[in-house]
Write a structure and sequence with these properties.
Largest sheet: none
Number of strands: 0
Strand content: under 5%
Shape: elongated
Distance between the termini: 50 Å
Structural class: mainly alpha
Radius of gyration: 22 Å
Order of helices and strands: HHHHHHHHHH
Number of helices: 10
């Protein structure tokens, strides 16, 4: 976004002497592919949330909708590369949507710790929820504000991009650090669970739908690890991209955005469609019995609870 940039009609053909805000014309093919992928996975998350009635799963729906809206805007921009509105929509939604998925994986770890007991982690389940979701909220806020300021400044020939860009960088880096810390704590919790020989190792008999609790939680832990790694890799890319500036190599080369943002976020979105927490987390009765076996309490599980009842 140069100071000498001339404002062209939204749907003008690409002019290499006066490139649009992206530095290129967004790919129509990539836009269509990602709209289909995010549309399909988000629809699946909506259906699973409604069926399960576990409304905390809406964080995955919100993240998916943000990604979908962002890629619809990029598809629009493939035909109208100079559209300020399309640019503002995609830069804002695609920068902060991953924060919703980060919130979801924080909640999942809280559930796992609740099941296996505080001995598996330095933080309690409630502490995970409050600490990391609060960090995620402020990260989301910074990225949204920064994206809005940057896109608004980009629509002006002499707009100052620095305030918005720096705010976005702060939000992305904050989220990245939180994701890395979470990854360490998540790994710590899993290792302690297995080393202590409690919790997940002793609840094979609590099977649901023919699949043992051990197997289901291993699948969920694996899916959470994949999603976390995708978010961290995407955060590293986005941080470097923004630090380079709006005319840097990464931000003006679409293949990196497609591979290191779009594709990674498809992984983060889709993994919980196939490994949905509602179907993999134990139900109430299983949670209580697992807690007993982890040494949390001497009380007996209450009777009369059905495995169809979720945590």
């Amino acid at each position: 976004m140069s100071d000498t940039r001339i404002t062209l009609p939204s749907c003008s053909a690409f002019d290499p002497t006066n490139p649009p805000n992206y530095g290129y014309t967004p790919s129509l093919a990539a836009g269509i592919v990602f709209v289909i992928l995010f549309g399909t996975t988000t629809t699946a998350h909506i259906a699973q949330t409604i069926i399960s009635r576990r409304w905390w799963l809406l964080v995955f729906v919100l993240g998916g909708l943000g990604e979908l809206l962002g890629w619809i805007a990029r598809t629009w921009a493939s035909q109208c590369p100079y559209s300020t509105l399309a640019f503002q929509i995609q830069i804002s939604t695609l920068i902060f949507s991953p924060a919703f998925f980060a919130c979801g994986i924080y909640i999942i770890l809280g559930y796992i710790i609740h099941i296996f007991g505080a001995h598996t982690s330095p933080l309690s389940a409630k502490q995970y929820l409050w600490v990391f979701c609060t960090i995620d909220f402020f990260s989301l806020l910074l990225q949204a504000i920064g994206g809005g300021l940057a896109s608004a400044a980009g629509s002006e020939p002499d707009g100052d991009l620095a305030p918005g860009t720096n705010t976005m960088i702060a939000g992305v880096v904050w989220q990245l650090v939180a994701n890395v810390v979470f990854a360490g704590l998540f790994t710590h919790a899993i290792i302690r669970t297995y080393r202590k020989g409690k919790g997940v190792l002793n609840i094979d008999h609590l099977s649901v739908s023919g699949m043992t609790t051990t197997k289901r939680l291993r699948i969920l832990a694996f899916a959470t690890s994949i999603s976390t790694m995708a978010l961290i890799a995407r955060g590293v890319y986005r941080s470097i991209e923004l630090v380079e500036g709006w005319r840097g190599y990464l931000i003006t080369t679409e293949k990196y955005f497609v591979g290191l943002d779009g594709a990674l976020m498809v992984v983060a979105v889709a993994v919980f469609v196939f490994a949905n927490p509602y179907y993999l987390l134990p139900r109430k009765a299983a949670c209580k019995e697992a807690t007993l076996e982890a040494g949390k309490t001497s009380e007996k599980p209450l009777g009369g609870e059905s495995d169809s009842e979720s945590v």
